[in-house]
Design brief:
The chain is an alpha/beta fold. Among the domains are: 34 residues; 151 residues, 2-Layer Sandwich (Nucleotidyltransferase, domain 5), CATH 3.30.420.10. It has 13 helices and 7 strands. Helix 5 crosses helix 6 and helix 7 packs parallel to helix 9. The protein is flat, with a radius of gyration of 30 Å. The two termini are 48 Å apart.
């Protein structure tokens, strides 16, 4: 059966090496089977392991785990309880395996089973529709003492719309920053989705009340899942892995604010962002990226017309990214190329 599957995959265009690795075999083993069909056929073990549980032992384990005393406990707890009672039936992993084989590995106990809901998806098709924000620590000369960088990012354009560096981490500072951004941008925040993780400042009473009063839709990550706020996490990585990021701690708030101001100016106006067709966040936020990408497409079209023999397919895709999704569903395909 395995040989037939590999042969079918190869005939369909697959390479022998990847096809063999997919089923856990080496290429040399398959080649040996082809030249000597009866030399190395594998049929699995022909004897039962000497240390295998007997049917009676297995039944005893199931009866104990399903008894009134233990049916609400997991094997993780059953094993030490049995040890305290002077009994040993099997290892914890064996108990889990038996439950799994008999389709009994379900939530045990009266408490409701935890519900793992997927993160809520959001989509942005233009600026000021979906923002993401977070707070990160910046070191100071005093060990264990930090200043706190607040960054708010427009997910569609990747532009840093606002920032602050404070010596405390609080919902009041976050709310003040959001209000300052709205005033500076002359922006009505009604309907904006503001996504954050589950930190205290994000869910603090002052921040929540401010967002509700302004009509902002608050969105939060799942507890303990940093990937749900991937855009802010990626921005902090870009910030802290910049060659210009100081190797020594910031001397004070003034020094930290001066460096962050320079970083934000570089990031918004000079950094060609790879996720938005290598335009700057400021250009995309203002809509200037459309003309820029059209000029790039024209450059490539002229180059292809001059030497068509050097192009085996389409030219590089310079069409604008139409939509950006935060936490998309697994089966959602994000369009990357517009068809005129």
């Amino acid at each position: 059966m395995i040989k037939a599957l590999i042969e079918a995959a190869v005939l369909a265009g697959a390479r022998s090496g990847p096809a063999c690795r997919l089923v856990g075999l080496s290429v040399r083993t398959v080649e040996r089977w082809r030249t000597r069909p009866d030399a190395d056929e594998r049929h699995g073990p022909h004897h039962r392991p000497a240390n295998q549980l007997t049917p009676g032992e297995r039944d005893t384990i199931l009866k104990v785990m399903n008894s009134a005393a233990y049916r609400e406990l997991s094997p993780h707890q059953i094993v030490p309880h049995l040890a305290d009672a002077g009994r040993y039936l099997a290892s914890e992993s064996t108990l889990y395996r038996i439950l799994r084989e008999d389709r009994l590995l379900q939530h045990r106990g009266r408490a409701k089973a935890p519900v793992r809901r997927p993160p809520r998806a959001h989509v942005a098709t233009g600026p000021n529709q979906l923002w993401s924000w977070d707070i990160t620590y910046l070191r100071t000369p005093v060990r264990g003492v930090y200043v706190y960088l607040y960054l708010m990012l427009d997910v569609w354009s990747r532009k840093i719309v606002g920032w602050a560096v404070n010596d405390v981490e609080s919902a009041e500072c976050a709310a003040a920053l959001f209000l300052r951004i709205c005033r500076a941008e002359r922006l009505d925040p009604m309907g904006i989705v503001l996504h954050a993780d589950n930190g205290g400042p994000m869910k603090g009473a002052t921040m929540v009340a401010t967002l509700e009063r302004l009509g902002v839709l608050a969105s939060f990550s799942r507890p303990g899942v940093s990937n749900d706020n991937a855009y802010s996490e990626a921005l902090f990585r870009t910030l802290k892995y910049r060659p210009a990021y100081p190797r020594q701690p910031f001397a004070d708030l003034v020094a930290a604010r001066a460096w962050v101001e320079a970083f934000v100016n570089w990031y918004n106006t000079q950094h060609l962002h790879s996720a938005i067709r290598f335009v700057t966040p400021a250009d995309r936020h203002a809509g200037r990226d459309i003309a820029l990408l059209l000029r790039r497409r024209a450059v490539y079209a002229r180059a292809r017309a001059r030497t068509p023999e050097r192009w085996s397919g389409e030219t590089r895709d310079w069409t604008p990214i139409p939509a950006v999704r935060l936490n998309p569903e697994p089966d959602v395909v994000i369009p990357t190329r517009c068809v005129a």
